[in-house]
Amino acid sequence: MGRKIRLLATVTVAFGVAAALAMAAPSNGGFETGNFDDWKTKDENSGGAMRDITKGRWQVYEGKLRLGGLEAPPPRQGMGGPEPKLPEPPKGKYAAGIASEGPGTHVLHRVLTVSGQKKLSLQLAYWNTADDFYAPDTLASDKPARRGIGPETVPNQQLRIDLMKPNAPIYSVKDQDIVKTIFRTRPGDDRRRDYKKLSENVGGGEYRLRIAEVDNQSNFLVGVDAVKLKKR
After folding, report:
1. What percentage of the chain carries pLDDT values higher than 90?
2. Distance from chain centroid for Cα 214
3. How far is Cα 78 from Cα 164, in angstroms, rounded to an integer?
4. Mind listing the pLDDT tens digit for each residue in 78-122?
5. What 8-state DSSP symbol labels residue 153?
6. Which CATH code of 2.60.40.1180, 2.40.50.140, 2.60.120.260, 3.40.50.300 fits the domain covering 27-231?
7. What is the number of other CB atoms lying within 10 angstroms of the CB of residue 206?
8. Nearest to 208 by CA among 166, 173, 168, 170
9. Residues 6 or more apart from 130 whose CB is under 8 A from it?
10. HSE of 114, CA atoms in CB hemisphere, 13 A
11. How far apart are CA 87 and CA 154, in angstroms?
12. Distance of alpha carbon 52 from alpha carbon 156, whole angstroms
């Protein structure tokens, strides 16, 4: 009888630990499946005739994330500057990353169901090789600068992380579609960031977490890892 009680207690404790772990992170929040299970990606490269060679897509990576697939050497920050790359994933073996060879718009997103008051956190890194950030209120990388006049486009080189209404258009930046902006780059911000934690308090409900990167000025690398929900 004593053995059965001890066995039941062990199973109960194990179940409690598993439940606590499940509460601490959305499924595949650290991309440790090695793929985008429970996530969605949307990658749109622009550039007209250059579309086939202006590559960029979200990927699950291990090790360091570098630019690749270019016939010419990738751009450097300043004369003789270092190779643009992202650090190894800060948690576990894998992280999600984009090493855009531009121009394009790239979105990583998923629906989150939040029960009660929680704290949403994630690890974020990036390296913008352009001379600055450009943050118009659009996620289009090829929006014409002047309607019908010339091939110029509005400079757009930005990263933003939003909690959205779950059924809002994925590229929307309208106030009525965005519940909360967790992070957004602005002109003058540091162009390079190693993995650091971001966190935001979130009330109960259903949301779409959107990580959006846009570039039409130069190469842009972004990394995301360790997406978690915890009690406040």
Report:
1. 70
2. 11
3. 37
4. 445 688 999 999 999 999 999 998 799 999 999 999 999 999 999
5. B
6. 2.60.120.260
7. 11
8. 166
9. 157, 191, 215, 217, 218, 220
10. 27
11. 31
12. 20
Count how many residues are written for the chain.
232
Whether residue 15 is predicted with pLDDT greater than 70 in this model: the reply is no
Give the integer Cα–Cα distance in Å for 187 and 203.
30
**Six-digit token string for 75:** 């751009």
- In a 3-state reduction of DSSP, which class is residue 62? coil
CB atoms within 10 A of CB 47: 17
User: E strand or H helix at 22, and its extent?
Assistant: helix 2-24
DSSP symbol at 91: S
Joined tokens for residue 70: 């270019």
Tell me the residue type at 81.
G
The three-class DSSP label of residue 54 is: coil
- Per residue in 104-116, is it b (16+ CB within 10 Å) or e — as a string? bbbbbbbebebee
Tell me the Ramachandran region of residue 51: left when phi exceeds 0, alpha when psi lies from -120 to 50, beta otherwise. Answer: alpha
Q: CB–CB of 187/179 below 8 Å? A: no
User: In the prediction, which pLDDT does 46 show?
Assistant: 67
Instruction: Return the SS3 of 7.
Output: helix
Residue 94 DSSP label: -
Residue 116's pLDDT is what?
94
- Tell me which residue of 78, 58, 107, 112 sits closest to 227, measured CA to CA: 112
Q: Do residues 208 and 110 touch, judged by C-beta distance below 8 A?
A: yes
